[in-house]
Amino acid sequence: MSDSTNERHGEAYELGEQLTVIGRKLEPGELAPDFILETFDVDAGVIRSVRLADSAGKVRVLNVVNSLDTPVCHIETRRWDDLRGQLPDHVTVETVSMDLPFAQARWKTAEGVNHEALSAHKN
């Protein structure tokens, strides 16, 4: 749902093109609002919902990218997966992208990435 009062400009770019960000900007130290995103569970063969609240009590690193199939997003996400092993057990890494859950699962399998990928794709 677009609310023009929460549209922000000049904060995000893709290939030099300015994007519009919708939503209130969080300030440092402010709690993130809960969200529900989707992931494809390869083992069960189903799409499941994931909430921010599911990882309550953990430190979360949210790697937010446009698409795993773009070069910079690909490199960034691979790097976070590589760093994951150096992080304490109470830290989780989750990548959020606009890719469909099936595309994320394909990419993760091809790249050997093990952390959660969450789809922010809207139907």
Note down, in words, how this protein is organized.
The chain has about 120 residues and is an alpha/beta fold. About 20% of the residues lie in helices and about 35% in strands. It has two helices and seven strands; from the N terminus they run βββββαβαβ. The strands form three sheets. The chain has a three-stranded parallel β-sheet. β5 (about 60-65), α1 and β6 (about 90-95) form a beta-alpha-beta unit. The radius of gyration is 15 Å and the shape is globular. The two termini are about 10 Å apart. About 10% of the residues are buried.
- Overall average pLDDT: 90
Give the distance, in angstroms, between the N- and C-terminal Cα atoms.
Answer: 12 Å
Structural classification: alpha/beta
Helix content: 10-25%
Question: How many strand units?
Answer: 7
Could you write a compact summary of the structure shown?
With 123 residues, the protein is α/β, with parallel strands linked by helices. It contains two helices and seven strands. It starts with 6 loop residues before the first strand and ends with a strand.
Q: Which helices and strands occur, and which strands form pairs?
A:
Layout: E1 7-14, E2 17-22, E3 36-41, E4 46-51, E5 59-64, H1 71-84, E6 91-97, H2 101-111, E7 116-119
Key traits:
single chain, 123 residues, alpha/beta, globular
